[in-house]
Amino acid sequence: MYRIIKNGAELALIEAPSYVRQARNGCFVLCQEAEAAGIAHNGTVYHLLGREALEGAESVILEAADAGAEIQTTRESAAQNAKLSGQLSAAARLYVQAATDVPDETALEMPDLFKTWEEVLAAGVTVAEKSIINDGGTLYRVVAPGGVLPQAHQPPHGEGMLAVYRPIDTAHKGTMEDPIPWVYGMDCASGLYYSYNAAVYLCKADMKPCVWAPGTAGLWQWEAVAAGETEA
After folding, report:
1. Contact at 8 Å (CB) between 65 and 1?
2. Within 13 Å, how many C-alpha atoms sit on residue 141's CB side?
3. Using 50, 70 and 90 to split pLDDT, how confident is the model at 227?
4. Judging by DSSP bridges, how do beta strands 59-64 and 199-203 pair with one another?
5. Gap between the Cα atoms of 167 and 205, Å rounded
6. Mapping DSSP to helix (H, G, I), strand (E, B) and coil, where does residue 131 land?
7. 99 falls in which pLDDT band (50, 70, 90)?
8. If I label 176, which of 38, 70, 159, 202 is the partner at 20 to 30 A Cα–Cα?
9. 32 to each of 36, 71, 183, how far by Cα in Å?
10. How far apart are CA 44 and CA 7, in angstroms?
């Protein structure tokens, strides 16, 4: 292997050089090392320091490298990077799990970083107000003043838990073309569109939280506007 060095820094590591010389017509042609004035790399011609000058070409040094040592160095570097990446991921997860100021939109972009309902149950400690929990793939924010001590019989998706946990879903625009999938207990805002049971509904009044599913008979707060397949 060979190392191409430019201005004291490594430009590239190659298996074999492509030696070139300049023909009489000015074109560069491949040649043997003994008659070469430069090398070609990634479509660029470089002048080899100490050889016949090549007008307009930057000078480089070609240095032999131990292939075994380079491979080992690469492996060690990759292992170190992987270790660092893992540590950064762990640190990010710990930070996110302890944070109470993560915006809903940001939280929805990284749902897997938050503790699951099973994890908070196993921890057995009070979860701070405004913290976020991943319950079966749906994110819930703790809204109980002072936080809550999770209980196995009171999961975020459970009936009667809206004063403690509130589902998050703002990944959709809330338009007819991109309605928000309705989840029991979510905050629903007047003027936005929601999808439920393959139909689209216009929310006609703020319902925070909303415990009445779209399409509930006699409920004027929902107006059916379209039917058909909708994407979650």
Report:
1. yes
2. 20
3. low
4. unpaired
5. 19
6. coil
7. confident
8. 159
9. 6, 27, 72
10. 16
Question: How confident is the model over 25-36, as pLDDT tens digits?
Answer: 888 999 999 999
> What is the distance between the alpha carbons of residues 125 and 150, in angstroms, rounded to a whole number?
8
Classified as helix, coil or strand, 76 is: helix
Question: Of all helices (H) and strands (E), which one includes residue 37?
Answer: none
The torsion region of residue 225 among left (phi > 0), alpha (psi -120 to 50) and beta comes to alpha
d(CA 118, CA 135) in angstroms, rounded, equals 8
Retrieve residue 28's tokens: 């560069």
Phi, psi of 168 (to 5 degrees): -115, 130
What is the token pair recorded at 204?
């006609």
Backbone angles phi, psi at 71, to 5 degrees: -65, -40
DSSP assignments along 140-188, one per residue: EEE-STT-B---TTS-TTSTT-TTTEEE---SS--SSSSPEEP-TT--B
Q: Read out DSSP for 80-127? A: HHHHHHHHHHHHHHHHHHH-S---HHHHHH-GGGSPBHHHHHHHTSPB
What tens digit of pLDDT does each residue of 111-143 get? 988 999 999 999 999 999 999 999 998 999 999
